[in-house]
Amino acid sequence: MNALQSIGTGLGMALFGWLLQTTISGVTRKVIARIQKRRGPVWYQNFRDIMKLLNKRSVTHGWAFDFGLLVALAGAIGTAMFMPVAGIVAFKGFDNFFMIIYLAALGVFGRALSSGSSGNPLATIGVMRGLTQNIGYKVPYMLLVIALISYYRTSSISEIVELQRVSGWSVLVMPLGFVVAFISLHGMLGKKPFDTYLAPAEIASGPLVEYGGKQLGILMIAHELSVFIEVSLFVNLFLGGGATLPEFLLKYAFIYILSSSLGAVMGRFRIEQVVRFYYKVPIALTIVQILMLAVMRGGVR
Amino acid sequence: MPKKERPSRFHPVSHTMQTVEVPTEKISPQEQAEAWEKIAHYFRANSLWMLNYCTGCCAIELPLVMTSQYDMERLGMMPMATPRQADILLVTGYASLKTLRRLIYTYEQMGTPKYVVAFGPCAVNGGIYHDAYAVLNRLDLYLPVDLYIAGCMPKPEAVMNGFKRLIELIESGQATGWKDYERRFDWYKSNQLEAVGEVYIHDEFHE
Amino acid sequence: MNIIHLILGLFLAGIAAYGIGRLKPAAASWLTLAASWAALLILFLGGDTLAGGNAWGLLAFKMTPLGWFFSMTLLFVYSTNTFFNLSVPAAPTRQAAYPMLYLISLASTIGVFSAENWLALFIFWEIVLWSSTFMIGFGKPGRGSIIYFGMSLLGSFMMLFAILVMGTAYQTFEVKGALMAAAQSPGPALLVFLLMLFSAMVKLGITPFHIWMPEAYHEAPDHFAPVLAGGLSKLGAFTALMVTSFLPASTLMAQPWQVRGLPLLTYILLTVSAVSIVIGTLMAIKQEDAKKLLAYSSVANSGYIMIGMLMGTPMSVSGALVHLLAHALATTVTFMVMAAVARQTGTTRMDELGGLLHRMPITFLAFLTAILSLVGLPPMLGFVSKWLILQSLASQGLFLVAAAAIFGSIGSLLYAFRILSTVFLGQLKPKHRQVREAPAVLLIPLLLLSGVTLVLGIYPYGLVQYTAKIENSLGFADTVQITGLSIQGNNGNLNALLIMGAFAIGFLIALGIFLKAPKSRKVDLMDTYTGGEFIYSPELYSYSTNFFAPLERVYAGLPEISRLYEALANRVRDLGTLVQYLFFSPLPSRTALLISVVTILLIWGEAI
User: Fold this and answer.
1) Which of A133, B16, C282, C608 has the fewest CB atoms found within 10 Å of its own CB?
2) Interface of B with C in 104-123 (CB under 8 A)
3) Average pLDDT over every residue of C277-298
4) Residue spans per domain, chain C
5) CA nearest C285: which of C539, C554, C540?
6) Is residue A115 domain-resident?
7) What's the CA gap between C430 and B90, in Å, rounded?
8) Are C319 and C385 in contact (CB under 8 A)?
9) CB contact, 8 Å: B34 with chain A?
10) Residues of C with CB under 8 A from a CB of B
11) Burial level of C123, CB count in 10 A (0-12/13-18/19+)?
């Protein structure tokens, strides 16, 4: 019975994450529209888009094309099931950071597999760019989180949230690290200037080039879920999560809309500029941050 | 190229003449499907992604429609990068011998349901290019056009008005050009072949 | 039945295989299959309590849990690979020795893992080296086997020297006893530690010694490369683990400096392993040949194994052992798949392949499983080991090493996608339209190995429990803990079954959505978005050469270690030329000079 309850909570969490992120995406489209002096779509536009796509008949390039998509969505749903939000966690004690990162990466791999099998070289180039960018932002981000883990001596997200309630948010522990992590999050979300892998004008939206209909719909659902995972992971790790749901939602919306708004007013990097950028500033700041922690707190144990 | 006679088997496209065939039997799954189709029409109408195939000068009106002055995102419309993702094919102006091949290729790559919107008089009867040697005067011989937007070039207001009309047509299930294309595929194909002929390319890539 | 019978039986089977192979090559391949599977069965049934023995009072053998783990891993790799031996097209006569060498090297690996005596261990170690050198030489022409032999010889000399030092200093050659004696008394213990570890690093392919790996793996026959990559390099891990657990660096160099609670020496070695991960990853990313790419990925993965062993915490050692098994299984599958692909298409160059997923779906699935395990993604075994190693790194707070581990982990996603995409995804080349799926006899080992990877990834508890037993036998104070279905880490728990469950639930939901939505139309691979352009040449319509060009440009100036070795080789050659010029010329006067110098030296030496 207990297991069923946990699974139910997990599925509820995944559904909640999808609803939340799809709504906030819509709201963000409105915010960006306002930045560009437009009115923008209704807030539930993304739901309409997804529903339309699921009702459209499209093409497939073979079984791996579809199988990869299913893996992508399954990875996203599976990861979202573990995500703690506002004190609710489906599988207590197993919401491990490394596990979340690797299970989410399985979804990414599924996406890459699917678009690679479409046979369109633009898709392969898009995946190449995405992976190259991935190696740029993930290293500083993971390094910071490992510093956090060894600071809090736990890699369970919900426990880190609990500990922050006692000792203050991690952003106070590592202010520089927060900045770096935000830049990394910006790259993770693929907002400008880090949207090299989509680049509609250069490579016709890269990995998405061959998708339409339900395939694109499933991909959009998986995308919304993975954004939910990334942003709520960030909020949980650096901003103390949230004791109550409104608090969590406020932080979540603030971070996502801030990142998107910054993206709305920037241009795009070239791909090697992205890698060079990440390996200069954020890595340097990360190392400074870790040294600072070591000096100020008598060593990160 | 000789002027094309109006073929006797030609019927104007569906949204003006044809009605959707409604099955008379009351079978529950079919009813369900119909009901669901109505809901789906709502979603389709309010989330239109378009592929602008900028064949002619009318395309210059689109930036105004997209950006802050008229903002078509209000209607849930967005430009998309590839035909696979798109719902509407915008043919902004005349179709020439060379562009028609690409238009057909692009149209056939789109997922169904899909809609074609033609801009200006060039797509209806060739407009000011009606006697040009390479311009094909009537688009709907080759592709099922769901909506024409009048004006040379159509003003942004007209374009927005046209989009609203398209949304109404889709919502009421009348924009069925793609079904017409599937039903009379042979007819369209013969017209297309007649217009562009078969192209033989001989170079190192195409052996 | 004891170990001596097993080893002797395999030796005899090898010699018999040579005789049979001269007459009927196919029968010899069948003999290798039968002998290795029989050995696997005996070892599996015997367990780690398989009786040892003492041959002629000289060579003592005893099975330990560690030895059993390694023997099983290698035997599994060897015996699954025998199916590939069957598929070898009619071998040239000089390859009649292949089945013999195969079985002899197999017997010797068991000897290495169960020898009680350092000298016996060394002899078997050398037999493995010699036989594998010849087997590499049966492949493509080149200097791969020479580089392999040269580098391994360096390792062997270091090992022999360490053994002799131990023998003179502590008056014993017993494997465990000598190391423990060294741990008790300082003296040459540090020298022994370093030499032993270096020789292990040569075998594992850790950075300064890794240059043999890409050459040898590339040039080895396609049906031997799986064993070389998945099996033989693991010999190094065995001695390394023996040394680091019985003669830990903390007893050698606890003072004067420590970094994060670890002796400076360990920290330096950890950094070397970390560099190995980074270099392996960066080099793997830019290879154009699938086998070389996989070879460099082995360099990176050996770094993980080494890190796990050097840290010496129960969890990290457990991680190293699991990673060793995961890497052995996965890399064997990848090389086997490359062998199958090479057999069906005739090449392993990535830019000549593509789209094989549509022709070889089962091979593709096995490859996908292995690649996921190499990258360390759930639900494969590679995830469990990477999780354990990263956990230990995080709890030790070794950020530099952790950064390298993360880099390697994400970088593996890059090269894994590269090989997957260029070999199996993308456009099918017109000349490969007629390619058939690999024959069933090759699919058996692929499915077996990838199946084990998947099953152990979902249910790793028995395996982790066994690594705890190994740790016990190695004298660890505490071991990795498992309660119920969760592996207890220092700062978190892992429930692999739960992860798989969550993934499966997600997959069912995704499948539900997928099936509910309207059915898709199947289109040809060439029917893709081309900006309206018509393209008729699939062989040009793919992206495979210079794959990660933007990233490669960032580190294009990275110096290559092989340059250093080449420079060294040139110096030696110069010296040789000088000696030749001075003493080996046609002029009789110089020869006379040589003779007189040697005579004087001899007399002088006598006087001393």
Assistant:
1) C608
2) 105-106, 109
3) 88
4) 1-116, 141-503, 561-607
5) C554
6) yes
7) 35
8) yes
9) no
10) 527, 529, 532-537, 540
11) middle
Q: Is residue A86 part of a domain?
A: yes
Enter the tokens of residue C241.
């683990």
**pTM for the whole thing?**
0.87
Residues 6+ apart with CB under 8 A from C74: C106, C109, C110, C113, C231, C232, C234, C328
Determine the Cα–Cα distance for residues C453 and A144; give it in Å rounded to an integer. 31
Helix (H) or strand (E) holding B119: strand B115-119
Q: What is the ipTM of this complex?
A: 0.89
Return the number of CB contacts < 8 Å for A and C: 266
- Point out the residue among A48, A58, A208 whose CB comes nearest to the CB of B47: A48
Cα(A295)–Cα(A287) distance, integer angstroms = 12
CA angle C452, C458, C460 (to 5 degrees): 80
Would you state the structure tokens that stand for residue C131, as one six-digit string?
A: 């036989």
Q: H/E element holding C278? A: helix C264-285
Task: Find which of B73, B106, B167 to mutate to test the A interface (most A CBs within 10 Å of its CB).
Answer: B73
Gap between the Cα atoms of B33 and B46, Å rounded:
20
A276 Cα to chain C: minimum distance (Å): 7
Question: What is the number of alpha carbons within 13 Å of residue B59 lying toward its C-beta?
Answer: 15
* Distance in angstroms (rounded) separating the CA atoms of residues A13 and C155: 55
* Backbone phi and psi for residue B79, each to the nearest 5 degrees, phi listed first: -75, 145
Q: Hey, is B90 helix, strand or coil?
A: strand
Alpha-carbon distance A28 to A157, whole Å? 27
| pLDDT tens per residue across all 207 residues of chain B | 444 444 444 444 444 444 555 555 556 788 888 888 888 888 888 888 988 777 778 888 888 888 888 888 888 888 888 888 888 988 888 888 888 888 888 888 888 888 998 888 888 888 888 888 888 888 888 889 989 988 888 888 998 999 999 999 988 888 888 888 888 888 888 888 888 776 665 555 554
Ordered alpha helix ranges (H), A119-174: 121-152, 157-167, 170-173
**Residues in B 1-30 with any Cβ partner in A closer than 8 A:** none
- Write out the two tokens for C555: 């580190």
CB-nearest to B76 from A41, A55, A58 is: A41
DSSP-based three-state secondary structure for C117: strand
The C-alpha atoms of residue B26 and residue B24 are separated, in whole angstroms, by: 6
Beta-ladder partners of B148? B118
Domain count, chain A: 1
Q: Residue A301 falls within a domain, yes or no?
A: no
Q: Which two tokens mark C306?
A: 């080494």
C-alpha–C-alpha distance, residues B169 and A132, integer Å: 45
Interface list for B 37-96 with A (CB within 8 A): 40, 43-44, 46-47, 49, 67-68, 71, 73-76, 80-87
Domain residue ranges of chain B, discontinuous segments joined by + = 29-196
Out of 3.40.50.12280, 3.30.70.790, 3.10.310.40, 2.170.130.30, the CATH code matching B29-196 is: 3.40.50.12280
Which residue on chain B is closest to A26 by alpha carbon? Answer: B76
**Which domain covers residue A11, as residue numbers?**
2-296
Q: B76 vs A33: CB contact, 8 Å cut-off?
A: no
Q: B108 to chain C: nearest residue by CA?
A: C527
Q: Token pair of C563, please? A: 């340059």
Length of chain A: 301
Q: Is residue A75 part of a domain?
A: yes
H-helix or E-strand spanning residue C483: strand C481-483
Optimal mutation site among A30, A34, A38, interface B, most CBs of chain B within 10 A: A38
Residues B118, B52, B102: CA angle, nearest 5 degrees? 85
Residue ranges of alpha helices (H) inside C376-495 are: 381-396, 399-423, 440-458, 461-473
Spatial neighbors of C35 by CB under 8 A, at least 6 apart, are C9, C10, C13, C14, C17, C103
Structure tokens at A252: 């979540």
